[in-house]
Amino acid sequence: MLHYARPLARLIGELEKLPGVGPKSAQRMAYYLLRCPREQVEALAASMLDVKARIRFCRECFNFAEEELCEICRDPKRDQTLVCVVAEPRDIFAIERTSEYRGLYHVLQGLISPQEGIMPEALRIRELIGRVSRLNVREVIVATNPTVEGDTTALYLANQLKPCGIRVTRLALGLPVGAELDYADQATLSSALPYRRDL
């Protein structure tokens, strides 16, 4: 059985709490930090404390922000009639990387999951409905993951928004670019067929 010095054991224990970090990875990171110059470790610690002190949720879309409104909500060039709904702030960065979308976003901060006790009231759905009416939104794009929770949330949002006369769409599902048919699983092919388009 390994016995670490108490501060090292504490550091490894804290690193193991990070998502996707197991005991071996935590140990590797801890040893790396021990070898780093003190200034580098202090810079890392300072940046973690700074992000906790200065980052908040945008009051409009619930993305991460340094000010009351995030950069996207403050941008007058964004299409105010188009709102893309995502589960988490990290999903915004994935969509922004495409440089294809120029509308606004709304972060639900989770997905409906009765099994985990997450019901619609726990999400930012009420704020979305208020925002959509206030901004005269013409279309809401639901960009949730193609999972049971993502599908449940998408259907719930569609039922809530359609009576307002708003077009509700969902990101297309199917084969990724460069994929080979014989490697695609049944669920991917099943979702790709209905979303086929004319050539």
Portion of residues in beta strands equals 5-15%
Give the end-to-end Cα distance, rounded to a whole number of Å: 64 Å
Please write the string of helix (H) and strand (E) elements. Answer: HHHEEHEHEHEHEH
Could you say which overall geometry the principal axes of the C-alpha atoms support?
globular
In the CATH hierarchy, the third-tier topology of the domain at 76-170 is known as Dna Topoisomerase Vi A Subunit, Chain: A, domain 2
Going across the biggest sheet, name each strand in turn: 4-3-5-6
Overall SS class: alpha/beta
CATH 2nd-level architecture of the domain at 76-170? 3-Layer(aba) Sandwich
Q: State mean pLDDT (0 to 100 scale).
A: 90
CATH class of the domain at 76-170: Alpha Beta
What kind of sheet is the major sheet? 4 strands, parallel
CA-atom Rg in angstroms: 21 Å
Q: What percent of residues adopt helix (DSSP H or I)? A: 40-55%
- State the helix count: 8
* Count of β-strands: 6
Name the poorly predicted regions: none
